[in-house]
Design brief:
The protein has about 500 residues and is α+β, with helices and mostly antiparallel strands. It is built from 16 helices and 24 strands. The strands form 9 sheets. A 6-stranded mixed beta sheet has the order 19-16-15-22-23-24, with helices on both faces. It has a 4-stranded mixed beta sheet with strand order 3-2-1-5, sandwiched between helices.
Amino acid sequence: MQFVLTFDVGTQSARAMLVSPTGEIVKKVKTTFEKPYYSINPGWAEQKPEFYWNAICQASLQLKNDAGKLWDDIIAVTCTCIRDSCLCVDENALPLRDVILWLDKREVTTLKPLTRLQRILFSAVSMRESVELQRKVSACNWIRENEKELWDKTYKFIFLSGYFTYKFSGRLIDSCANMIGHIPFDSKIRKWMKSDDLRRCIFNVEQEKLCELVEPGTIVGPITEKVSIETGITEGLPFIATGSDKGCETLGLSCSTPDKAAISFGTTATIQLTTPFYMEPLPFIPAYPSVIKEHYNPEVQIYRGYWLISWFKKEFAAKEVEEAIIKGVSAEELLNSRLREIPPGCNGLVFQPYFTPGVVMPKARGSVIGFSDVHSRLHIYRAIIEGINYALMDGLKSLEKRGKLKVKEIFVAGGGAQSDEICQITANMFGVPVKRIQTYEASGLGSSIVAFVAKGVFSDINEAIKSMVHIKDEFLPDEEEHKLYEKLFNEIFSKIFKKLFPLYKKSFE
């Protein structure tokens, strides 16, 4: 037997798992974070880096205990984790401050103005406003402004993935497939931006503060003696660089070609493709580097995504929450079971889920239109599900148009993917088959695929996918419902933002 030991560190939990060459999660330990982050000020989100490392060690030691003799059959170790979560370290790779997480909302209050030439060039491509927003929300700029002495002491400005790589291998290095966030990284060439790149002014990190990058599948180094003592992992096992949680998830769902789309129904809902060519998903928005060499992951994000389900549960679903406790199930499971009570299109209720401003929509706001006296809170719940899917449909149509390609099937992951009702609604809305694989641990599976190929168990990624990814459930679209959703998308949803945008702008004044 041969296994890859994979760690998957998310916002809410850390998992350690043994993955076999057939894609079976043989053993798994999950550590849920009671307090995923702390906030010194409203909108801030930070966490101590050792908090995550301790969770990894705890999960690893427990997994070793559970695995017994199987532990001796591990051939490699990998780690995938959340994106755009950064920290500063000194020359000994010791953290100088806590991690600023991807969901942190702090902003820089004063910034050095752009030069006249920069203003002209960014304005010429209609990106001036978005560039200014990105400069404000970039953690590197905030640290430079508010913690100047700390920034001056910073040896490397790294992501959480780079910190984990150092902890496992003793090398301050990271995979280029983890470089997704507010940093001066050129996704097209999979390297740091050149010093004269116009975009360097957005993420102002000096070249010497950036770590060495390697391609996914690179054996970074052996597990050190110190790590072996802390985690129980056999000293000398190779630690292999893979990629971010979303990128590994897309691979774990078997989406290695442009005719397959990966949808993640997570806190941030995303739709992502894998292409052998560089293609910006939206104008001037980079495609991310894939965990497959010389491939890319163009992606469209709905920032609040399935956070909206948590919001709805908190504000409107006290009855289901109470009932769920009595029945020993989740409130989401009860709510999803009632989705069938509401007809497609929610009797005219349409939800626009752009709750959080972003690069493309710096003045976005959410909305619900079409209320009448026939609507109940269950209509609102289904409208949220449909609204997120409408936004993802909009993203997919843009990806297909820009790439001159056609998606023929969709693979789903994330919390919402566990619901048969949501999967069926998704198939009906997109008009293509929606598929679930044999495990919900798609990120860990994708990370393990990279390792098995690197170790020569499989000759390439496609051979590994055939052996390790298996379709468990398939949801075929109802053509009549699809026609209805297409009509609602074209005639209503796609027009809402443009119609309301003038009002959104005023609300920011």
